[in-house]
Write a structure and sequence with these properties.
8-stranded antiparallel barrel, mainly beta, about 10% helix, Porin, about 190 residues
Amino acid sequence: MVILFISSAGQIFSQDDDKRDFFVGGMFLHAGFISNENTVSAVDGECHGIGGKGVFHIFHKFRAGIEGYASNYSYPDNEGFYRLGWGGFTGDFLLYDKRLTVVISGTFGGGRVKDIYFLSDGQEADNFSVNYYTFTTLIVNPSISLEYRLKSNLKLTFKTDFISSLDQSELNRKRFANGPRFYLGVLFCK
C-alpha cells in the first residue's frame, strides 16, 4: 500500500509531461559464469536460471519494487548441483532516450543456497558419500540493463549483474558462488 501511495504521489506531482509506465513487470531467462573457493565441491562454470521483477514508478527517474531469481549449476563430474534462489527489494535509476532506456539497479535481499555433491569412495558403485550444504545469506546485487520499447506496453530487456553475499564468514566466502550473469527478458508495462 505504501509503495502504491508513494508511486501515485510521484505521478501526480511530477512536473515532466512525458508518459511513464506506472508498473513494469516481467520474466527473465539468464545464463552466466559462477565460481567459489570450496575445495571439496568447487563451483566453476556455466549457470542458468529464470526469474522476474515487478517495479512501480515512484519519481521521474526512479522505480522501486521486488525481484527474484533461481540460478542452477550442474557439476560436470557427477549428478550433484548448486542452486541459489534469491529475492529482495530493488531500486532502478532510469536514463531515458526515446525507445531505449538504460537502467542502473541495486537489489538488497536474501538468498538460499543448496549444494549437493556426490563423493565416490572408489570401491563399489553403490557406496558413496554426499556433501550436502544448505544455508541462507544476505545478498546485494548491482545490475545494469537496457530496455527497448517494442510497443507502448511491451519492452525487450537485456541485463547483466554480479551478485554478492554480505555474509563474509570464512565458510560463506568459500561456498557462495559469485560471477556475472546475463539476462534476456520481456517486461510488460501499464
